[in-house]
Design brief:
- With 84 residues, the protein is an all-alpha fold.
- The protein has one domain.
- Helices cover 63% and strands 0% of the residues.
- The longest helix has 19 residues.
- 12% of the residues are buried.
């Protein structure tokens, strides 16, 4: 069963160029054909990891939410090796 939700996102030219570059870089690193959607999911995973590893999220409930979301994302990874 596919439990995906479609979200429409509007990017500036610069944001789109950054996302396209991230996807290209990930394709080179992962040696796999990854899309811009894959790159966006990888960026979310990386941002959650940075919040956990590099920053002190002050609210314990929010910190737990970040940790659970990152771990759940990794546990149910459906986009191949797109993680950074």
């Amino acid at each position: 069963m596919d439990s995906r939700t479609e979200i429409r996102v509007r990017f500036t030219d610069q944001e789109l160029a950054g996302l396209t570059a991230l996807a290209a870089g990930l394709r080179g690193v992962a040696e796999s054909d990854l899309s811009e959607e894959d790159a966006l999911v990888a960026a979310v995973e990386m941002a959650l990891t940075r919040l956990i590893d590099d920053f002190e999220v002050p609210d314990p409930a929010t910190r737990e939410q970040v940790q659970v979301a990152r771990d759940d994302l990794r546990a149910h990874w459906i986009r191949g090796a797109a993680g950074i």
